[in-house]
Design a protein that fits this description.
Blueprint lengths: L4 E2 L2 E3 L6 E3 L2 E2 L11 E4 L5 E4 L1 E2 L4 E7 L18 E8 L2 E6 L10
Antiparallel strand pairs: 1-4, 2-3, 2-7, 5-6, 8-9, 9-10
Amino acid sequence: MTVLLQGPVLVCPTCDHREPAGPFNPEIGLMYQGRFHSCKGLKGVIAPLVPEGLACKTEKVDREDYEGGELVQRDDDGRPVMAVHMTADNTEHHIVLPPTARASSE
């Protein structure tokens, strides 16, 4: 029998966003199935939520290459964003925001 336990509070390391993690399965561990939010500290770009008390840093990486006709993710200032990097104690996580190509048939 699996017992669901109450998880910790999830927080954003860049802004003041907080939300309860809800119940989690101890067999799965502390992977919260990719909990994200639109972060006002990163100007509207999605950012991961982490358990409260975890020392980490989240930063966005601006796109530096040519956009062409692709559809790219933009922050609230209109700057194209390439990725979000999160660095914690002994680990790094990267959220890549790839561009979307457009095609048309005539």
